[in-house]
Every structure is written in C-alpha cells, then in structure tokens.
C-alpha cells in the first residue's frame, strides 16, 4: 500500500506478472519506481486483467482511475489509424526492425500522436513476432484456405486472413482454448509467449514459424495527469520507464526463445519455413497493404522497408 | 479492519430487506468513495462491463430462455414424466437422477450457475411432483450445480492454468475423478437420507409407462444429443450451445408439441398440424406466447444478472484496494509447512469465496500462493483442484454465492431457505475438500496416466 | 410462475407493454444473432464479425434497462427471513429505511453513469465526489468508437454534430453506453415510486416475498387433495 503524500500510480494490464514479457517489464517498473521514488511516488500494478482488460483500461485512464497501461498497439487504432501499420502483415522483417522503426522519428511521432485525445505514449514494449497455428500443418497459404481462425478484433488482421482465404472468427479470449480443442475454430495467430502461456499448442497440430506480424504494446499515460505532475517526478519517472523499456526490450528475444523452446519441450510441433516457402506467404498477404495505405501513410511503409533492408 | 465493516454492511443491509444487488452495490460504493480516489464513473463502467465484458456469463440468459421455452412448451413436462417413470419409485431416485443430470450437464458447461439454471428449473419441478419438499430439491441442485466448474470443461480451470502456467488439458483431466467422486458422494448422501427419513417415492408404473413417456419425451431428450454432439463435434462453443438449446426448445415447443404458439388450441381440442396453418412458420416468432416466454426469461435474467453485476462491483472495489493481496500475504508470510500451508490456502479461499466470484478471486490468489506451493513441493495440478473445490464451496455459502442467487431465482424461494437446504450437502463438500486436499492422487492420477509425469519448470 | 403485472391506468398499461416487449425483443435478438453466427460459421464458413460485440451490448441493455422494470414489479431478490420476525409497524420502518438506501444507491450510480457517459457524448461530467456540484470541462471523447460494430449509414447525419465532421467507421461508444444514464435514471424513478408505495402503505417490501406465495401453493396442494 502507498504512504500518505505519495503520488499513486496505478497500472493495470492483462498478463501474468512473472513470465510474460509485458508482465515482467511491468513488475520491473513497479519495483524500480517503489525503490527509487519512495516518498514521492508509489506504483501499484494490477496484472491478469484483475482490474481492467485492455479495452476498459484506456477508458479508465481517460477518466483518471488508472495512470498507466500497456495495451497492445491495435487498441490505439481507435485513437489514430496510423497504428494499423503494426498489424499489417510482413511490414517488419523481425523484432530488431520493429525496434528500430519504433525508435525512429516515425515511431517517436506516434507516441505523441494521441495527445489531442488525452493519451501520451511513454515507450514501446515488445512481445514478439506472430506465428500461425492450426489443426493441420501449414506449409503454404493454401493449407490455411477454408479454415476458421480466431483473430484479435482488428480490421487489418481480418483483411490479412481473408487474403489467404481464412475465415476470421471473433471469439472471447477465455473460450479460445476450448474452441481450438473441439475444432469450433481451426487455428489462431499469436506470439511464442502467448501460444505457450495460453497453452494453445496443446490443442493444435503444430505452429508455423511465419513471423508474419508483430504484437507489441505501448506504455501510455493520461496526458492531463502526466502534464500535471511536478517536473522532477515526471522527469524521474520518464527516465525509469525509458530504462526499463530498453532493458526488457533487449531481453525479449530471450523470453521469446524460451517460450518457443518450452513448446518443443512440452511436445509441441514447430514448422520452420525456408526463405522460398516464406516468400509465398508474403506474396499472398502483401496486397493487404494497399487497402490500408491511406491509414498508415506510404512514408511510414517506406521507412519500415528501408529499415528492413538493414537487418 | 475496513473489510470487516464492509462485510458487516453487506450482511446488515441484506437482513434489513434491502435487495441483495443493492446491498452489495451500496456497500462497495461507500467503501470506494471513502477509502480510495477512484471515481463513481468506474462503478458505472464496471456495471456495464459486467455484461458486455464477461462473455461467458451469456450462458445464463440463454439457458434461462431454453428452460423457459421447455417449461411453457411442454418439453419439461414430458421429460419429468419420463424421469418419474424411470426412477421416481426408488428411494431418493429422482434426487439422485437430478445429481446425475447436473454431472452430465457439468460435462457440457464450464460454469456452475449455468448448470443450476439449465437443470434446476426442470428437475426441481419434477421432484416437487413426486412429493419432495421444494427446499430439499433446491438444496440438491444448488450443490450438485457446483460440479459445473469441477467436471471439465471449466472456465475456472482455464483461468487457473493461464495464471499459473500449468497445462489446461492436465487440469481438465485432473477434474474428472474428483468430479465423479463428488457426484457419487452426493448421490450416496441422498440415498442415505432417503432411507433414514423415508423420503417420498412414487409408484412403479411398469416398463410400458417408461416406454410411452420416453417416446413422448424423445424430442426433448434429443436436446442432450444436440448439445453434446454440437460441443464435442466442434459446431459451437459451450456458450453458443445455450443459445442453440433455446432456439431448439422454441422450435420443438411451437411446431412439434404445439403446447404454445399459433398451432396450440386451448382446452381439450387437438392442436393444429403445421399444414393446416403454414403461416405459423412466420407468426410463431411474433406470437404472444413467444413474446411472453422471452419476457419471463428476460425478467429472471435481469434479476440474476443485476446481482452478479453488483457482486462484480464488489470484486472490483476489493481488487482496487488490494484487499485479497493483503490478507493472503499476511497469512502466507507466517511460514508454514505443506500441511498447514494447505489449511491456510483453504481458509483464504473460503473467506474470499464469501465475497467474490470464482474466476476473479482465483486470478488474484493463485499467483500469490503458487510460488510458495512450488517451494513446498506441492503439485501444481493438485493445488489447482483444491482451489476449484474451494470455489465450489464459495458458490453455495452466503452472503455472496452465485449458485444461491441463481437457485433462489429459478426455484422462486427465499435465499436463506436455499442456504439451509444446501447445508447437509455443503457438509459433504467439506469432507470432499479435506479428502482432495490431503489425498493428492485423487487429482493427479488420471493426468499422470494420460499425459505422463509432469515437468515443473520454475 | 409469476403473477402478471396489472397496471392501473391506460398510460401505465402502455408503458408496461413497451417495457415487457423491449425485454423480450432484446433477449430474442441476442439469441438469434448468436444462433445465426453458429449457422454461418458451421454451414457457410463465414460469420458476422460484429455479432459477438452486438450480443454483449444487447446483454448490457437487457439488464440495465430491465432492472427498473424488476423494481416496478417487486421482482428483486432479497432476504426476508429476518424482517418477517418483526411487527408490521417495525417492518414498515425497516422497509422505508431500505427504500432510502435503494434511492441513495440509484442516485450514486446515476451520477457515476452520467460522469462515465457524458464525455463519450461530448458532454461534461459532473464535478463533486459524492454529489454533483456542477459541471467540469470534460475532454470530448465522441470520436471513441466500439471495436467491431459498423456505423449505420442512416446515422451519418450525426457526424457533423458529434464528431467534428469526421466520418465514423464503427459505432461511436456513446450509443451503446447511453443505456447507463437512461437505465439508471429509470431505476432511480422506480425506487422513488417504490418508496412512496411503502410510505402510503400500498406495499410492504422492496423484495420478492416468497413466504406468501408458498403459503398459497401449500394450501392449493391440500385443496386439490393429492
Ligand atoms: Na464443467
Ligand atoms: Na460464497
């Protein structure tokens, strides 16, 4: 509990606090703030959606009931559509390219792009690249054609699935495991950490290492609250967030690899694609870019491609 | 300390005749306004999200509706006649059949209140017909309904698995034997009570009646096949199954049994056949009987969900103030061995279960006790089952017990009567909890047999 | 099962018909949408992507709209074991206190509902922690859309009013959320009515009285002689 006189920083997120990349980062942030800012500020983290889910947390932030959150980037598409670039398939080659893009001018601009609507971005947190799993082996896009995939609610991801003739299905997250098990839906897409954490691999034939998209988060705070903080508190807190972001983003490859290995250890199957096979997926999904270029801006796509070339 | 005031306030308001929902909500709001900086707007948000954000609670309105169509349309009456013909003459027969029906249904549904709703409204009426008291009938169903979260599938187990990183499949397997055992213990208790108290039983009308009533009830019984087949055949999720059941019950009632809707003829006259009035295919959807059934189901849903929504407000406020964490860490920091530790876990969960709904409590407590349990060498699957059984008990103990509320609603009887009626069976669940707590093999045998020994990754 | 509610005036009958039909239609809609999505997915490998969200919103509408009705017909569940021990005079006082608690509850939730909804509708939330003391200058959130439900074409005319002329892709949140202030205002109204009924001696309690019903049924049972 917080002492009197301390500025209370409530943060709510949806994952566990010790295994998921986001949960680990939030726990680290919490312990650093409580140690280094003791007397000035005090942070309380509510993991596992115990207080709010990703949708509700932004509303709660705007009404002043929580001060920090780290929802997945697709939640910000309602604030400004430029965030759709992260949902587009194959725009980023790997997580290093994502990282470089987020730290470029384009990425920096995105952090402040929502201030007119009351949110200030403090940093991007990685989860990792998305993979595809189904109840049959997926080698080429045709293997997925005609299947039903549970998708996160996002127009871009729906379009991406329709591009490979997959029927996108909305489904509450709590029902996905059971639905995959009984084959109400055939497949899903997610990062290694999530596929391992939610145990989806247990009820899928295998997971194909497509690395076709990115699932990242942005640490956000309320613009009004942030600007109302005393200067020294804001500066110190900002610095801690930056350091935690850098430290955990650098380690995310490790967490990702551990989750991938844990799936193998638990008997899950992983299908690796060679460059040629992967290109078939790229060709099948890339037309989706055209549909959303107006939202994300050609210059941002170009910037991402320039960064890809370096990796 | 503040929690104690909150606790007293909830109970005090309830006993004063304030509706349960308002007792929960008012206490939570005052607690929030006095002790935190959180806004009243967050209460409104929680209230809306209680429905909009809890997809699995949707099974409640759909099963209420399915039951309503089955009662109005004569499906329930025929099923009850069949059950009475089959087991009504045995001591405790129909009550045992009720437990069995709950176990069957638990294997379809991941939620306990949904189990009570689906089975209760039919079986309680049936038991009344044979001459059981309403209290006894309600008590049996309220408790047997808790098997919904122990027999897989189980939403609570999915929550536990994702909070603690154990396998959902293993958890599901682990629930099978405890679920069967608990069901068996309840049945045995009923049989003993029936023998001692000489519970009423009907007369045996012979196999002819069984056959006749069975054929009559066939369309209704086929619903079980549809639900089972639909879920395990991958056609729909358990929540969707409830909606499908409602539509099926509507169609059977309106077009096959014709005990309601445009083809129904009041009095002794024969109901119309569809070819005599083909317009019924359309008018059935707008018929007064259909509207009235939808409305009655809606009304019951509203009263149940308003209580659940306010229970979720209470959960939100307790979470916001980090009360469960404080209590748990105070008790866990004492440093006990495995035996004492499990007692403490049970105590925390039993107390918590008085106030919070299962998934909400579990998601908070599991990550707190899990690391300590691992240190003490307790099997994570075993711990999970202990937690689920605790959640079951929480659902039938006042002041906050979803099964109590739902039973009170579907049986149309005072909540305190349900509490009293559930007591003997609650005692059985307690014995069961002790068995599950100190005999790990009940939970771990089947998953180990099917999936091999567990690798614990710390 | 339950006794049908009898309104006393023509207006009362019309209102009652509207309330009951709305409850029936919402529940029917939820069931149909869910069923249609099952058919579309299994039979046609497609689906209404907005179906899930629509059903959850209708669920919220059902309960938040219906709760005032349940107060009107005294269908709220409660514990009457203790109050039944007291004399009618004491019971009346307890019922009045309980009624006051319900009014306070509805008033607090209504303030919360307004404060939550108003920014989404481009209006101002009230200031004050317990009681509304005025209006604050809330940040306009009328741009905030739901996740899946598409914006209906026939509503395009609200864009210049609500969204500074920008087009809505999805339904703005203030539409589904409007049930909160509306439903809670109705709830407050019904609790005040219930309080007046107890005051005038027209009714004795806010909660379902099961005892009376049970007594009647038990007697019927005896009369029927079975
Ligand atoms: Na179950
Ligand atoms: Na309880």
Automatic annotation (TrEMBL), chain B:
Q: Name one GO biological process term.
A: C4-dicarboxylate transport
Keywords from the named record: Cell inner membrane, Cell membrane, Membrane, Transmembrane, Transmembrane helix, Transport
How does the protein's chain sit in the membrane according to the entry?
A: Multi-pass membrane protein
Quote the cellular component terms of the Gene Ontology held in the record: plasma membrane
Q: Domain named TRAP C4-dicarboxylate transport system permease DctM subunit: which ranges?
A: 7-440
Q: Where is the signal peptide?
A: none
- What is the role of this chain? Part of the tripartite ATP-independent periplasmic (TRAP) transport system.
Name the family.
Belongs to the TRAP transporter large permease family.
Q: Under what name is this protein listed?
A: TRAP transporter large permease protein
Native source organism of the sequence: Sulfitobacter undariae
From TrEMBL, chain C:
GO function terms (MF aspect): transmembrane transporter activity
Topology of the protein relative to the lipid bilayer: Multi-pass membrane protein
UniProt entry tagged with the keyword Cytoplasm: no
Principal location class: membrane
TM ranges are 21-42, 48-71, 92-114, 174-192
Report the locations given in the UniProt record.
Answer: Cell inner membrane
Q: Where is the Tripartite ATP-independent periplasmic transporters DctQ component domain?
A: 30-117
State any GO CC term. plasma membrane
Keyword tags: Cell inner membrane, Cell membrane, Membrane, Transmembrane, Transmembrane helix, Transport
Please name the GO terms of the biological process aspect recorded for this protein, alphabetically.
C4-dicarboxylate transport
Q: Which is an annotated Pfam family here?
A: DctQ
The text of the family note is:
Belongs to the TRAP transporter small permease family.
Q: How does it assemble?
A: The complex comprises the extracytoplasmic solute receptor protein and the two transmembrane proteins.
The UniProt function text for this chain reads: Part of the tripartite ATP-independent periplasmic (TRAP) transport system.
Q: What is this protein called?
A: TRAP transporter small permease protein
Q: Which organism is it from?
A: Sulfitobacter undariae
């Amino acid at each position: 509990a917080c002492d009197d006189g301390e500025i209370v920083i409530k943060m709510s997120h949806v994952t566990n606090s010790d295994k998921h990349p986001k949960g680990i980062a939030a726990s680290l942030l919490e312990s650093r703030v409580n140690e280094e800012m003791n007397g000035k500020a005090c942070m309380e983290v509510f993991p596992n959606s115990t207080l709010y889910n990703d949708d509700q947390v932004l509303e709660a932030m705007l009404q002043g009931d929580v001060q920090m959150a780290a929802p997945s980037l697709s939640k910000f598409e309602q604030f400004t559509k430029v965030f759709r670039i992260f949902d587009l398939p194959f725009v980023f080659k790997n997580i290093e390219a994502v990282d470089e893009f987020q730290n470029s001018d384009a990425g920096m601009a995105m952090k402040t792009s929502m201030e007119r609507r009351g949110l200030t971005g403090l940093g991007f947190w990685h989860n990792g690249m998305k993979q595809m799993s189904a109840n049959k082996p997926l080698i080429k896009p045709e293997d997925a054609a005609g299947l039903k995939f549970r998708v996160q609610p996002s127009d871009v991801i729906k379009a991406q699935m329709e591009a490979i003739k997959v029927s996108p299905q909305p489904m509450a997250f709590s029902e996905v495991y059971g639905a995959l098990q009984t084959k109400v839906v055939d497949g899903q897409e997610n990062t290694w950490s999530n596929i391992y954490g939610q145990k989806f691999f247990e009820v899928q034939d295998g997971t194909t290492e497509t690395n076709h998209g990115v699932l990242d988060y942005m640490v956000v705070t309320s613009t009004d609250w942030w600007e109302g903080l005393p200067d020294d508190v804001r500066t110190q807190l900002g610095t801690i967030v930056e350091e935690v972001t850098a430290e955990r983003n650098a380690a995310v490859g490790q967490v990702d690899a551990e989750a991938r290995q844990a799936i193998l250890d638990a008997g899950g199957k992983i299908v690796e694609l060679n460059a040629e096979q992967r290109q078939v997926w790229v060709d099948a999904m890339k037309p989706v870019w055209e549909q959303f270029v107006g939202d994300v801006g050609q210059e941002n796509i170009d910037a991402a491609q320039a960064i890809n070339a370096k990796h | 300390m503040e929690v104690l005031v909150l606790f007293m306030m909830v109970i005090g308001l309830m006993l004063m005749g304030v509706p349960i929902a308002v007792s929960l909500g008012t206490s939570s709001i005052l607690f929030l306004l006095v002790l935190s900086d959180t806004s009243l707007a967050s209460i409104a948000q929680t209230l809306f999200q209680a429905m909009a954000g809890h997809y699995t609670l949707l099974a409640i309105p759909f099963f209420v509706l399915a039951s309503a169509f089955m009662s109005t349309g004569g499906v329930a009456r025929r099923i009850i006649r069949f059950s009475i013909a089959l087991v009504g003459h045995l001591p405790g027969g129909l009550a045992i059949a009720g437990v069995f029906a709950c176990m069957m249904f638990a294997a379809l549904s991941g939620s306990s209140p949904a189990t009570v709703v689906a089975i209760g409204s039919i079986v309680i009426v049936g038991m009344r017909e044979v001459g059981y008291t309403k209290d006894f009938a309600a008590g049996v169903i309220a408790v047997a309904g808790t098997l919904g979260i122990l027999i897989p599938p189980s939403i609570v187990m999915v929550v536990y698995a994702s909070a603690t990183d154990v396998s959902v499949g293993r958890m599901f397997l682990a629930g099978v034997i405890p679920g069967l055992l608990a069901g068996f213990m309840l049945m045995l208790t009923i049989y003993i009570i029936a023998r001692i108290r000489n519970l009423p039983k009907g007369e045996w009308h012979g196999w002819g009646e069984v056959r006749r009533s069975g054929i009559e009830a066939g369309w209704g019984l086929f619903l079980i096949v549809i639900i089972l087949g639909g879920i395990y055949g991958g056609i729909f999720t358990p929540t969707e199954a409830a909606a499908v059941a409602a539509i099926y019950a509507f169609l059977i009632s309106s077009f096959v049994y014709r005990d309601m809707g445009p083809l129904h003829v009041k009095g002794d006259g024969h109901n119309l056949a569809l070819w005599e009035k083909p317009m019924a295919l359309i008018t059935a959807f707008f018929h007064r009987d259909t509207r009235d059934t939808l409305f009655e189901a809606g009304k019951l849903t509203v009263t149940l969900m308003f209580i659940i929504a306010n229970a979720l407000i209470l959960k939100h406020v307790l979470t916001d103030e980090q009360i469960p964490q404080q209590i748990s860490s105070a008790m866990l920091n004492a440093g006990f061995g495995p035996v004492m530790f499990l007692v403490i876990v049970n105590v925390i969960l039993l107390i918590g279960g008085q106030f919070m709904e299962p998934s909400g409590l579990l998601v908070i407590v599991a990550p707190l006790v899990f690391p300590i349990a691992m240190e003490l060498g307790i099997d994570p699957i075993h711990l999970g089952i202990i937690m689920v059984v605790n959640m079951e008990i929480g659902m039938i103990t006042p002041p906050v017990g979803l099964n109590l509320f739902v039973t009170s609603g579907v049986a149309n009887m005072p909540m305190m009567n349900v509490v009293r009626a559930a007591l003997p069976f609650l005692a059985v669940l307690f014995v069961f909890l002790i068995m599950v707590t100190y005999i790990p093999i009940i939970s771990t045998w089947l998953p180990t047999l099917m999936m091999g020994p567990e690798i614990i990754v710390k | 099962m339950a006794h049908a509610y009898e309104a006393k005036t023509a207006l009362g009958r019309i209102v009652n018909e509207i309330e009951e039909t709305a409850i029936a239609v919402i529940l029917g809609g939820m069931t149909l949408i869910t069923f249609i999505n099952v058919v579309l997915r299994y039979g046609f490998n497609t689906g209404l992507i907005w179906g899930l969200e629509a059903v959850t919103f209708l669920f919220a509408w059902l309960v938040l709209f219906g709760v005032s009705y349940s107060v009107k017909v005294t269908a709220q569940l409660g514990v009457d074991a203790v109050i039944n021990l007291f004399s009618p005079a004491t019971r009346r006082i307890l019922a009045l206190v309980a009624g006051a608690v319900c009014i306070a509850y509805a008033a607090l939730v209504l303030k919360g509902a307004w404060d939550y909804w108003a920014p989404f509708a481009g209006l101002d939330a009230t200031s004050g922690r317990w009681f509304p003391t005025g209006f604050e200058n809330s940040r306009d959130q009328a741009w905030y859309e739901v996740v899946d439900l598409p914006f209906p074409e026939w509503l395009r005319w609200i864009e210049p009013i609500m969204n500074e002329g920008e087009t809505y892709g999805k339904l703005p949140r203030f539409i589904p959320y409007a049930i909160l202030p509306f439903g809670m205002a109705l709830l407050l109204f019904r609790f005040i009515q219930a309080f007046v009924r107890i005051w005038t001696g027209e009714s004795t309690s806010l909660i379902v009285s099961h005892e009376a019903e049970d007594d009647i049924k038990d007697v019927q049972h005896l009369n029927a002689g079975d």
